[in-house]
Amino acid sequence: MEMQQRDPARMRSGLPEVDTGTVDAFLAETDRAGLVAVLLSAGDPARFPEAVDVAIVLPELITAFQGRLRGAIIARDAEAELGTRFGVRVQPSLILCRGAETLGLIAKIQDWSVYVDRISRLIDRPLGATATVVASIVPVHQPAGAEQ
C-alpha cells in the first residue's frame, strides 16, 4: 500500500483547514466569538520551505495574543482562489480578517517582534478604519526640472 505524502506545514500547525466552501463560516464564527481570524496561505513547501516555519509560528502567535486570534490553514487546492480574494501575492502569507474584512497580510517568515508589532497594529485598529499610507507628495503638473 502506498503512503500519501502529507504536507508538513499543515501537519505541524495543528490548526483546522478551510477551503472556498468553509472559509466564510470560519470567518463568521470567529467574528461572532469576538476574535480576529488568521489564515495561513502556505503554498507548496517544496517551493516555499519557510511555509513550515510560518506554520510553526502561527500557533505560538495565537497563544501570545491571549485569545484574540483564531487560526486556520487554507487548503492547498483553494489557495489560488482565496489568495485572489484576500490579495495574497507572496507565499507563505498570514491573512488577518475581522469578519469578512481583510485587515492586512504578513508575507514570509518574520522576526517575532515584527509579527507582534504588525498584528497588534492591525487588530487594534477601529472597525472600518483604513490603514495609514505614508507617501511623498509630488505636484501632478510640475514641469520637468522645476524646483519644489
UniProtKB/TrEMBL annotation:
Classification via InterPro entries: NiFe-hyd_mat_HyaE, Thioredoxin-like_sf
UniProt cross-references to SUPFAM superfamilies, sorted A to Z: Thioredoxin-like (SSF52833)
Pfam families (UniProt xref): HyaE (PF07449)
CDD domains: HyaE
Annotated family: Belongs to the HupG/HyaE family.
Protein name: Hydrogenase expression/formation protein HupG
Organism: Bradyrhizobium oligotrophicum S58
Lineage: Bacteria, Pseudomonadati, Pseudomonadota, Alphaproteobacteria, Hyphomicrobiales
